[in-house]
Each structure stands twice: as structure tokens, then as C-alpha cells.
Protein: Diaminopimelate decarboxylase 2
Organism: Citrus sinensis
Amino acid sequence: EHCFSKKADGFLYCEDVKVQDVMETVEKRPFYLYSKPQITRNVVAYKQALEGLNSIIGYAIKANNNYKILEHLRKLGCGAVLVSGNELRLALRAGFDPTKCIFNGNGKLLEDLVLAAQEGVFVNVDSEFDLENIVVASRIAGKKVNVLLRINPDVDPQVHPYVATGNKNSKFGIRNEKLQWFLDAVKAHPNELKLVGAHCHLGSTITKVLLFFTVFQVDIFRDAAVLMVNYIDKIRAQGFEVDYLNIGGGLGIDYYHTGAVLPKPRNLIDTVRELVLSRNLNLIIEPGRSLIANTCCLVNHVTGVKTNGTKNFIVIDGSMAELIRPSLYDAYQHIELVSPAPQDAEISKFDVVGPVCESADFLGKERELPTPDRGAGLVVHDAGAYCMSMASTYNLKMRPPEYWVEEDGSVSKIRHGETFEDNMRFFEGL
Ligand code: LLP
């Protein structure tokens, strides 16, 4: 079952807590509301799917970097995938085991690579210059670095171009024809580099995974894994002892709430299980969205309703500053009101928009909703991944507070909302 649902009384609940009740007890501004038990359930689903395999769940911190959430994920046994020095620092601060952490990215900085080398995290090699930097970092840190080669498999994940990463013209990874150069470079630096595996990441929001009752779908994760295992065979044939296959993240979720059957962690893992076992590999996965997106809603207040031309608008206090995915990727995130509409309420089509001075400032378009009262609660679902972590302070809309519902039904704040005074602090002493 899912943490956010409408119960018989017509109100929206997070676990057993009425969202309306939370709204009445917290500061009146947009806020993120999470279910801690749902985070646990999502991790457990991956753990169960991975049973019988040696594996690391590398949670992609970019999806959501709330410190309290990170601590929780770490306690559940997750490792972490990092794409900046600060994400690495945060993961270490939150107590993640460095040997379950992977430092990834196409523009890793030397100083951050030095930290990664000192701490003993895995590092993905993305390019020639990246390899050179890792060698230098290893020397500065005085430690050998465990590296994986990030392969660009040229697989089309059939997703929005902004979130596809494994195509041959993307900025990420190493193409087939250059593999030998990298193997030779690793061989030339036996004191600095230990090649332990291969990595790929196809893209994000992927829902094309083979389910046994939808046999006509392309199974791109399996296609990619086959390719990757071939690479590993080639690499092993040159005497490298590589043990890790990292298939990245990318599993999509049910943003549309249509009840369609979508691939679950189990389906994803099952498509690669035999391959991984056949080569006696450790499997690394890097889920972000599928661990955290569905655990959260952005809760907003309706400021008013207006009509222009043929369009109806619901104007809310949240905006593209708090949640940019609809504006940036034309992403659909489900929207609903937290309280039941009166029986006779008329349903109309609304664009749900914020107060920001941009026409791109929308959270949803053409949504069928009853006309809400001013002050009514309106949620944007599946806001746990790439929402708060991509929030900005555009128009000086300070970033919102975050709360979660705990196992015992209590609600606690897990991040303060930013304030105007926070902004002024950057100018102190100038
Ligand atoms: N591993 C690597 C190397 C990645 O680049 C990413 C995401 C992940 C793992 C995690 O992917 P996930 O399981 O979350 O799909 N801002 C976009 C998504 C960008 C994803 C970037 N890379 C969005 O809001 O949809």
C-alpha cells in the first residue's frame, strides 16, 4: 500500500495522519511532507529483490539530500552515490560506510578526488582527463583508488532527452572504441589505480523493463547488462580482477497514478540476476527516484482562482522555485486537494500555477479539479526526488521546510524552512 491516500472521509492522509491536520499545526507556507515508513518500505523492496546476490544499494544523494533522510537510509544499510565533493562530505557526515560509496561524475574536481581517495570510496572514471586527475589525487592522498570504468553503452532509454545519459553522443562515460586506452592507462599506474569494475547509467524515469505479462516491451536494463558483462569479460581477459558490475539507477515510478502496472525493483533485479551470478559479480545499483520520489508530497495553499481567456487557473503559494520538474522537463506530477469537495462541486480544468513571474511557472496543466476555496490545501505528489534538491530561491521564495510522519504517527520537522534573514546573512560583513 502507499503512504498517501484518500480515506473514506474524503481527506488525504499520509500514513494515518490527515494532511489537513498537519497544515493546521505548521507554519503557513509550502512544505514538503514525507512518510518515513514509506522510505523504509522502498528500501526493503530493493533488499528483498537483491536477496541471493552480493550487492550495494548506492542511494543517489542528488535525488534528495536531506540529512535526516540520509541518516535513515544509512541505518537501513544503503551506500551512497555522490556527484560532488559536498555530497561526499555530507554522506561521510551522515555516517555512510565509504566502502559502500561511489563517486561519480563527468567533471569531478581534483580536490574532491583527493578526499575520495583519502576516504577510500569507489571512483568512476569518466574520461581521459578524469583518469589523470584520479592518478594525481591518489598520489596526493597516498592511497590507491578503487576505480570503475563508466561505460557509455549507447542504449536509448526512451525518456526525456534531459534525463537520458547513455546515448553515444552524451557527455557521460567512455565509448567502446576507447576502452583499450583506459585499460592501458590503468596498467601503467599500478600504484595509483585498481580497476574493480564497470559502471553504466542509462538515464532516469525508465519504465521499459521486461515484465512477464508485457513481453513486447524492450528490456533496456537487460540489454545494457548483457553489453556490460561482455565488457567485463574483455577486461578480465586482460588479467584484471574486476568484481563489480554497476548498472546505475534510473527505474521510473508511477507519476501518473493511473494504476498501470509498472516495473518494480524486483523486476529490474530479476532481469540481470542470472547474468550477475554467471560471472560471479557484485552488483551495484544506484537508485534515486525509485527509493524516495513516492514518499513525499509538496503541500501548498490555494491563494486564489482566476480565469483568463479560455483558461482557468488555481494560483498556489508553491511554485517552480520549490518544485521545478514540470517547468524543466514538462514532467507530470499528480495533483489533488487534501480535503473532500462538496457533493455538488463542479469539476473544471485548471492550470495549477505559482506566483513566480514566469509563464513557465506551473505545477500542472489542464488538471480536472473541483474549484477550491482560498487557503485550501493542494498537494503535488511524488515530490521526494529531484524536487527539494532542485529548489531555488528565485523571486526570493525561500526554500521550504520539510517534515516527516514517523512510524508512531508523530510529525516532526526534518529541515527548517529558509527565511529572509537567512538570505541577509550572505551580506553580513561585506
Ligand atoms: N546514477 C547516476 C550516474 C545518475 O546520473 C543518476 C541520475 C542516478 C544514478 C539516479 O537515477 P534515478 O534512479 O534517480 O533515476 N533531475 C531529473 C533526474 C536527473 C537524473 C540524473 N542522474 C528529474 O527530475 O527527473
Summary: The mean pLDDT is 94.
